[in-house]
Structure formats: structure tokens, C-alpha cells
Design goal:
The chain contains 9 helices and 20 strands. By secondary structure, it is α/β, with parallel strands linked by helices. The protein folds into 2 domains: 231 residues, 3-Layer(aba) Sandwich (Aminopeptidase); 106 residues, no CATH class. The strands form 3 sheets. A 10-stranded mixed β-sheet has the order 1-2-3-5-4-6-9-7-8-10, with helices on both faces. It binds zinc ion.
């Protein structure tokens, strides 16, 4: 292990270096760590980041499992294990970020101030130096939903990269300082949300995608017919107003502004028709929702409608990242939506 200051560095680690289990591997890491594995072709490099959120371990598990194979990748691979500090807080993999720290995946932008931003800047400097042909960032979703990719650019390279891991790609105009914005440096970059952190399928999806990423000769220029990727553009966030209350129940709960059935997650990524009841509303009706468009206008009534005490879509929509966790529903958002064709709702 070489100490580069903010980031530790390992090259071609042996099985002894990485431990028998992912937890031994994590225990051996002292800092955010960069692992370089020389490829058969050393003139090309691909980069991979993971654990930027300490409670999203599928990518770390995948990297460990792959490193244990001790197989030479097709090109040189750089693996960046980001959120080592939050991930190591007991119980391990329970902290997205340090208790008083910033979200590392919001720090890949100016001004680089604070410890997380220094880590982000150090990794960006490495990318600049190493000039990878592409970059993948592996995450887990907060719920148990299916996998998807997220990108700021939608072209052949981004679709091809996504197709290594999943069949859906969300394209967003939002710029939050996430690593995926590295696409703007002409390096195709995709965030992969491979499913829930507790979900064995997510660990498997991350591993299988990673194997394709490190073994294929070409990962950014597949034939168009091979992709079959579903594109979802600029989803809007369906948020609850601060004073609104939410419950999950099979029947309307009298003291809640919104009641949703506990199996509402089954609607993730399917088309929901306007005749499909989503749940129930209290006396405040649709007023408890806030859905802001680019101009900060509330467009809740374009997405949701009320009939009696029931909640329906206002048009055919695709909804995803629907949460059944009331804390996330309140503090983040209830779900994301696009039209049934995957287009932006304006
Ligand atoms: Zn994440």
C-alpha cells in the first residue's frame, strides 16, 4: 500500500492484500483507496468508482470478488473505493457519509472545500492524469427496486456502458456535483444503481456487470441492435410538503394526508394508467404534494389527480424509486416520474 496523502494506492493486489472476505478487505483499508490492475493492453485504461456512499456496498463486494480471481483484465483498470471512512463506522455499511460530513457524491465540483471535497478533487486529479476511456460509478438504491443507470449525456457510448449492467437509463439535466458529471470532460461516465444494499440480486448484478466491464475488448461502441435500453429523460421529483404526513396501509389512515398501499413499490418502472388508484388522500388533497419544474412552478396536478378520497395519475406515467420508507418520502422524495414514453413532464 502506497500512501498518496488523501488516497492510498495499491497495484495488482494479491489475495493476501485484499483478504478472504469483503469485510476483511474493508477492514484493511485505512483511507479512500485507488487500486490499479494492469491489463493485457496497458495502453488503455477504464475507471470504476464505488462506495462513494458508505452504506452502498454492492460495488465493493463486486470489486473484491473480481480481485480474488487474480485475472488480468483486457485493459488496465482503476478502481476507486471512495467512502471508506463512513463505511467503516460500526455497524459497517450503515452510514452514507460521516455524521458531520458531506455527501462525497455531491463534492465533484468547485469549490473543493472540506475533507470530502479534497477526496473528490484527489480522484478527479487521478482521472485527469490517467485519461481513462470511460468511468463507471456503482451505487445501491435506498429501496429494493430494480437496477438502472443515470447519466448526464445520452449517446451511443453511454448506452453501451449502461447495457453492461442494466436495461434502463435515466438521463438528467441536474448538476449536483456528482461524479457522473465527469461525462462533460468527454469521458463517458455512468452511475449504476444496481438495486438495494441488502439485496443479493444487486450484489450479483454489480459483479456480472463489472466482469463484462473488465473483460470485454470494447465497452463503449457496441452495435445499436445490442442495447435495447429504455431511456427516461429528466424525471420530476414528487415531494411532500414539509407539513404533510404519510402512512403505508391497505386502507386510508384517518390521521394521514397520504396513505399508500405497502406494495406500491411494485409500480416501479411500469406504466401506470390514469385509472389505476395509487392510494388515498386526506382533507388537504393534492395540496400536500410539491412537484417543481425548472421554473419552480408546482406541476403536481399534471402528474396526480384526486377523485373522492382516492389518488390517481393525471396521465399515463412511469414512476420509479417509489419509496415505502416514510423518512425518505419526507426528507428526499416519494418517487420520480416521466411520461409513459419516458419523456419529461413539463
Ligand atoms: Zn449512492
Amino acid at each position: 500500500m502506497i500512501d498518496l496523502g488523501i488516497i492510498d494506492f495499491m497495484e495488482n493486489p494479491t489475495i493476501e492484500d485484499i483478504g478472504r472476505t469483503p469485510n476483511e478487505f474493508l477492514a484493511s483499508l485505512k483511507k479512500p483507496t485507488l487500486i490499479k490492475v494492469k491489463g493485457k493492453d496497458t495502453t488503455r485504461t477504464r475507471a470504476l468508482a464505488t462506495l462513494l456512499h458508505g452504506n452502498e456496498p454492492s460495488g465493493l463486494f463486486a470489486v473484491h470478488r473480481w480481485l480474488r480471481l487474480q485475472e488480468k483484465p483486457s485493459v488496465t483498470i482503476l478502481c476507486f473505493i471512495g467512502g471508506v471512512y463512513p463505511a467503516k463506522l460500526e455497524p459497517i455499511y450503515s452510514h452514507r457519509q460521516l455524521p458531520n460530513g458531506k455527501d462525497l457524491n455531491r463534492c465533484f465540483k468547485e469549490p473543493f472545500e472540506g475533507p470530502e471535497a479534497e477526496i473528490a478533487k484527489a480522484f478527479l486529479d487521478i482521472l485527469h492524469e490517467e485519461q481513462p476511456e470511460c468511468l463507471i460509478d456503482i451505487h445501491n438504491t435506498s429501496g429494493t427496486g430494480p437496477s438502472f443507470g443515470v447519466t448526464v449525456k445520452n449517446d451511443a457510448a453511454h448506452q453501451a456502458l449502461t447495457s453492461l449492467f442494466t436495461e434502463r437509463l435515466i438521463v438528467t439535466d441536474l448538476r449536483l456535483g456528482a461524479l457522473m458529471e465527469y461525462s462533460e470532460k468527454e469521458v463517458p461516465t455512468v452511475t449504476v444503481e444496481c438495486g438495494g444494499a441488502q439485496d443479493e440480486h444487486a450484489h450479483q448484478a454489480a459483479y456480472e456487470g463489472l466482469l463484462r466491464y473488465v473483460t470485454k475488448q470494447n465497452v463503449i461502441s457496441l452495435e445499436k441492435a445490442e442495447w435495447g435500453i429504455e431511456i427516461l429523460t429528466n424525471p420530476v421529483r414528487i415531494e411532500l410538503k414539509p407539513e404533510a404526513t404519510i402512512a403505508y396501509n391497505e386502507q386510508p389512515q384517518a390521521d394521514a394526508d397520504i396513505t399508500l398501499p405497502p406494495d406500491i413499490e411494485h409500480q416501479n418502472f411500469g406504466v401506470i394508467h390514469p385509472s389505476k388508484s395509487l392510494g388515498w388522500l386526506g382533507p388537504n388533497g393534492l395540496d400536500c404534494f410539491s412537484v417543481l419544474n425548472k421554473n419552480q412552478e408546482n406541476i403536481a396536478s399534471k402528474i396526480l389527480r384526486q377523485e373522492g378520497n382516492q389518488l390517481f395519475p393525471a396521465q399515463s406515467i412511469k414512476a420509479f424509486m417509489i419509496t415505502t420508507n416514510p423518512t425518505i418520502a419526507k426528507s428526499d422524495c416519494l418517487f420520480y416520474a416521466v411520461t409513459d414514453k419516458g419523456e419529461q413532464i413539463i
